[in-house]
Amino acid sequence: MNKKILIVPGDGIGQEVTAVGKLVLDKIAEKFGHTFTYDEALIGHVAIEATGNPLPDETLEKMRASDAVLFGAVGHPKYDNDPTAKVRPEQGLLKMRKELGLYANLRPIKLFDELLGASSIKPEILKGADILFFRELTGDIYFGEKGRKNDGDTAYDVAEYSRFEVERIARKAFDAARTRRNKVCSVDKANVLETSRLWREVVQKIALEYPDVEVEHQFVDATAMMLIKDPTRFDVVVTANLFGDILTDEASQIAGSMGMLASASIGDGTGVYEPIHGSAHDITGKGVANPLASILSAALLLEISFGLKAESDALINAIDAVLKAGFRTRDIADATTASNMILGTEAMGNEVLSRI
Ligand code: NAD
pTM of the full predicted structure? Predict the structure, then answer.
């Protein structure tokens, strides 16, 4: 198979982990007889520094022209601590999602058995947890009108959803449930928000097309609690942009660390695959970032955009073997991990590479 992959490392540890993601894709191509050609493009803070624009047109064009994008992260403390900055790295991310029509963000949350001890949740609660989140990605409060009034003393962000936007993400979630355990939990705040009432109405209607799928509606505050109390009760979870953003970070603790979670953003055109973590400036340049989320992102890329399931499984099995051999990065090590088994980014990448 011949495919064009665009590498967009972005900022901070995005650079470090995406370099490893590219290496494993290379190895897969070599082992399975594919030809992957790569190009690279700028986004986020590095793009602002180079061009003044967090998503240069050239990057967008390259994204549209490629078969899939392996993405790192965006963000820089300079902007996090300056609410007045007019140009911000995250604008690049939001614009990319909108321009590429990436309305569905898939976040599989599954714990590798070897990491049962790495989570702050008790192993007996966690064992068997396997959740697939569908976070809506191009609507909600992130994209509505925002601004200040009353001389800047009052701020507002408008949340908006259309029937069509809810329908298309709901269908994706119900379709996925049919390939898993036939359960969908739709998360909203329909007791308070009008957008949530529309959300629930639409999901209830779509559910009629899937009589074989069990559907449950839950308020987001209850879901936040249930994810920690009883994570195995969930199969597919579908929710709006803001709720999904928060709940999936919470759910990352089920998988042991932010450094273990990948996501796929899909929609009308090129799919974008990225770890759920950010640019993590607290550890940037130290060589300690966990590259496994980027490798898992590459696995999702192979399966979803290219239909290469065996190749995707080869990556997941290699990670499993590395963890079984006892290797850990710092974020997934626990009190029982010997210090010589705690690896940096590059060394962890090499352990995975050698087991593909
Ligand atoms: P973060 O995900 O970057 O980091 C949160 C914590 O998890 C940090 O302590 C970090 O060290 C740790 N962590 C994250 N990824 C890790 C990895 N691979 N290995 C080991 N430890 C890891 O979130 P934050 O600190 O809230 O935000 C930092 C910057 O990232 C901000 O500028 C924010 O806007 C941006 N951000 C970007 C994205 C994205 O690009 N999709 C997502 C979230 C945050």
Answer: 0.91
For residues 274 and 217, state if they share a domain. no
Residue 22 lies in a domain: yes
Ligand 1 neighbour 73 (Cβ under 6 A): yes
Which residue type occupies 334? D
Kindly state whether residue 118 falls inside one of the protein's structural domains. Answer: no
CB of residue 54 inside a 6 A radius of ligand 1: no
Residue 171 CA to ligand 1 center (angstroms) comes to 30
16 lines ligand 1 (CB under 6 A): no
How far is Cα of residue 12 from the mean position of the Cα atoms in its chain?
17
Domains held by the chain: number: 2
Nearest CA, atom 10, ligand 1: 280
pLDDT tens for the chain, 356 residues: list them: 999 999 999 999 999 999 999 999 999 999 999 999 999 999 999 999 999 999 999 999 999 999 999 999 999 999 888 888 889 999 999 899 989 999 999 999 988 888 887 788 898 999 999 999 999 999 999 999 999 999 999 999 999 999 999 999 999 999 999 999 999 999 999 999 999 999 999 999 999 999 999 999 999 999 999 999 999 999 999 999 999 999 998 988 888 788 899 999 999 889 999 999 999 999 999 999 999 999 999 999 999 999 999 999 999 999 999 999 999 999 999 888 999 999 999 999 999 999 99
Please tell me whether residues 102 and 143 are part of one structural domain.
Answer: no
Same domain, 286 and 320: yes
Mutate to test the pocket of ligand 1, among 80, 246, 279 (most ligand atoms within 8 A of CB): 279
Q: Which residues are catalytic?
A: 142, 189, 221, 245, 249
- 184 & 238 share domain: yes
Residue 157 belongs to a domain: yes
State the CATH number of the domain containing residue 136: 3.40.718.10
